[in-house]
Amino acid sequence: MTINKKMEAKIGFIVQARMGSTRLPGKSLMKIGDKEMLLFLIERLEMVKHEKEIVLATTTSDLDDYLVKFATQKGLAVFRGS
Prior knowledge:
Structural class: alpha/beta
CATH topology: Spore Coat Polysaccharide Biosynthesis Protein SpsA, Chain A
Number of helices: 3
Radius of gyration: 13 Å
Strand order of the largest sheet: 1-4-5
């Protein structure tokens, strides 16, 4: 799912993540126990009483394709940019 004008009014949270970190590559999807770090954040945001969309913002890098796949499987909207 991509962001368009119609969705702009529905956005409640934008979560920025990328896989290409130099100090700890892939940390967004590293697991703490049995859950990915990004999933912990998503679940906490979903606890907030809101009617708005959670959007994952990431880069156009091929490395971030993993994040896009993860986010879409969780039902999140995705924005990719540089």
